[in-house]
Structures are given as structure tokens and as C-alpha cells.
Predict the structure.
Amino acid sequence: MSHRVKNLLALASGLTAITSRSTTSKEEMVSQLTQRLTALGRAHDLVRPLKGGQGNAALLGDLFTVLLAPYDDEGAFAGRIRVAVPRMGVGNRRRRA
């Protein structure tokens, strides 16, 4: 568990650094960082297994779309992000013992 928490903190730290380089005000940074962290939370919800063993929780394209959404409105990236991947499910799998 400690390793996972450290990974999450490293990810948040990296996102903070990247966001700080692409923003010009504290308010803009807060807004963009919040959007990016929210996207990660939404992506996590997508890959969690469905109840009752109903299969994969999301399609790979949907996952990329959620993760890249915060970047779609940014100047250099506006309207330039397109997701084209094979129709493939993603999510947690239970490991067999």
C-alpha cells in the first residue's frame, strides 16, 4: 500500500510541475490541475471491474478520451487530440491462484 501511495504522490507532483509550466496565473493553475486530477479519478472509475463479473469496465478509447479531455481546450492542443484505438476493453482482472 505504501508503494501505491508514493506512486500517487509522485504522479500528483509531476502533474503539478507540468501544469505550473503551462499556466500564467495561480487561478489558471488551480483550474487546470483540478481538471487533470479529476480526469485521473474518472479514469480510475472506468477501469474498476463492473459489479457481478459483467466484464471490463471501459473501452480503451473511452479511457484515453477521459484522460486527454483536460488538454483539449489548451491553445496548442485545442481540437488536435484524436483517439483512434482498436475496440478493446480494459479493467482489473482477477488473478487466478
Observations:
- The beta strands are 58-59, 89-90.
- The radius of gyration is 16 Å.
- Helices lie at 2-21, 26-47, 60-68.
